[in-house]
Amino acid sequence: MPVTLEGGKKSTRPKKPEEITNDDIIGIIQGLIKSERIVLEAKKEASSEYLQILESYLPRQVSREEIVTWIKANLDLGQYKNRMQAMGAIMKHFGKTADGKLVNQILRDG
Fold first, then answer.
1. Can you tell me the distance from the alpha carbon of 109 to that of 1, in angstroms, rounded to the nearest whole number?
2. CA 106 to chain CA centroid, nearest Å
3. Is the pLDDT of residue 4 over 80?
4. Are 58 and 22 in contact (CB under 8 A)?
5. Bridge partners of residue 11, in order along the sequence
6. Which residue, 28, 29, 50, is CA-closest to 39?
7. Long-range contacts formed by 76-82: CB under 8 A, 24+ apart
8. Span 25-38, mean pLDDT?
9. d(CA 102, CA 51)
10. What is the 3-state secondary structure (H, E, C) of the chain?
11. Distance of alpha carbon 80 from the chain centroid
């Protein structure tokens, strides 16, 4: 994980313990989940105890309805040349609690 220094410059030095955020940890867990799903798919298995344990550490994901409601209340999609440009604002608001694929689909479906 690159570290952004005070001047805004990125550094490849490892983060110090006090610099690690919850989003960093969630990102690591999501990476482990993705890897486990690839292994399970190769083994033609639906789930594993390891996958269930990893998923238990993730925050609740927001629903499609919650995302749509927030978009309607907070964004004017007409201000964007392309609806997909709203993706950044949506993901910034929801952080790791929103599935990027779901947000992308919502924006495409209109």
1. 33
2. 15
3. no
4. no
5. 3
6. 50
7. none
8. 94
9. 21
10. CCEECCCCCEECCCCCHHHCCHHHHHHHHHHHHHHHHHHHHHCCCCCCHHHHHHHHCCCCCCCHHHHHHHHHHHCCHHHCCCHHHHHHHHHHHHHHHCCHHHHHHHHHHC
11. 22
Q: Which residue has the tokens 């690839």?
A: 38
**Distance (Å, rounded) from C-alpha 82 to C-alpha 46?**
37
In this predicted structure, what is the pLDDT of residue 45? 96
Q: CB neighbours of 12 closer than 8 A, spacing ≥ 6?
A: 2, 3
Length of the chain: 110
- What six digits make up the tokens of 86? 């709203």
In this structure, what token pair is assigned to residue 24? Answer: 């960093």
pLDDT of residue 69: 97
Number of neighbours of residue 48 by Cβ within 10 angstroms: 14
What average pLDDT is seen over the chain?
91
Tokens 């005070």 identify what position? 6
